[in-house]
């Protein structure tokens, strides 16, 4: 069983600073029971207390539905496939949502408004939110979710890996609050879904980063909290993939 006190201790051990930009991926359930009544609230509020004086917290709010229905409402926060109740709770805590219809991001803190406003019409690559976060050395924070944060796809884009490619999607942004509809073209970075050898798997990367001391991990209940500098992770991947081009694949 874990608590807010243990979470605070773990985040302190990971040297989380008030000026940090933090991107969280989480699977809270693997840490077991929480002494507080709402584990998701405990996680988000605990991290916000650490970083949002001058830093920012970002959460995934991916929908993946835009390529199918071609309609996106940026005012609606839906549960992320990777974060579940944590993403849902963020709406009540005043998080803003990025305009990416596929790899949407929730954010709260000093850097959020400027980063979201300046975002281009692509999920990865020049001008994208993930590119800007990598340039700013966002801290990759994981609760039982390994080292394979979404920002790794930005790293793959910069390396022009052969198993991913850019793909454009035409659709509409539907802002129900303003009753305005806008046509858009959005560029994502995808893999061939018919080729199982292009499927991502970050287990090997997580183990190697831990052994190298880049991925720092401390206990949280039955699970763990871990973090790494995204720039350090990128530099490691750049070198490691010279001898292991399949480092990030299943």
What does this structure look like?
The protein has 250 residues and is an alpha/beta fold. The protein has one domain. It is 32% helix and 24% strand. It has 9 helices and 10 strands. Strands 4-5-2-1-6-10-9 form a 7-stranded mixed sheet. Strands 3-7-8 form a 3-stranded mixed sheet. The longest helix is centred in the last third of the chain and has 14 residues. The two termini are 32 Å apart. The model has no long low-confidence stretch (mean pLDDT 91).
Supply the key terms:
250 residues; alpha/beta; 7-stranded mixed beta sheet; 3-stranded mixed beta sheet; 9 helices; 10 strands; 32% helix
- The pLDDT mean sits at 91
The percent range for helix content is 25-40%
Please give the count of helices. Answer: 9
What is the topology, as strand order, of the major beta sheet? 4-5-2-1-6-10-9
Can you tell me the overall shape?
Answer: globular
Oligomeric grouping of the chains: single chain
Strand portion:
15-25%
Q: For the terminal residues, how far apart are their CA atoms? A: 32 Å
The structural domain count equals 1
User: Which stretches of 5+ consecutive residues score pLDDT under 50?
Assistant: none
What structural class is derived from the secondary structure elements?
alpha/beta
Order of helices and strands: HEHEHEHEEHHEHEEHEEH
- How many extended strands? 10
Radius of gyration: 18 Å
**Biggest beta-sheet profile:** 7 strands, mixed
């Amino acid at each position: 069983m874990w608590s807010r006190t243990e979470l605070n201790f773990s985040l302190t051990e990971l040297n989380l600073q008030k000026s940090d930009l933090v991107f969280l991926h989480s699977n809270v359930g693997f840490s077991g029971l929480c002494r507080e009544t709402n584990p998701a609230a405990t996680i988000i509020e605990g991290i916000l207390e650490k970083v949002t004086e001058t830093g920012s917290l970002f959460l995934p709010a991916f929908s993946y539905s835009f390529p199918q229905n071609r309609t996106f409402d940026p005012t609606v926060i839906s549960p992320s496939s990777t974060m579940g109740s944590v993403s849902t709770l963020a709406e009540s805590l005043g998080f803003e949502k990025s305009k990416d219809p596929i790899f949407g991001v929730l954010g709260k803190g000093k850097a959020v408004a400027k980063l979201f406003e300046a975002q281009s019409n692509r999920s990865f690559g020049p001008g994208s939110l993930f590119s800007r976060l990598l340039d700013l050395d966002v801290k990759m924070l994981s609760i039982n979710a390994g080292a394979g944060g979404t920002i790794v796809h930005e790293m793959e884009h910069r390396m022009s890996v052969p198993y991913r490619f850019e793909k454009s999607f035409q659709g509409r942004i539907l802002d129900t609050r303003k009753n305005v509809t806008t046509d858009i073209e959005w560029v994502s970075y995808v893999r061939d879904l018919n080729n199982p050898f292009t499927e991502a798997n970050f287990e090997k990367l997580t183990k190697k980063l831990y052994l190298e001391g880049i991925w720092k991990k401390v206990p949280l209940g039955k699970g763990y909290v871990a973090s790494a500098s995204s720039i350090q992770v990128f530099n490691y991947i750049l070198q490691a993939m010279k001898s292991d081009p399949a480092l990030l694949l299943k």
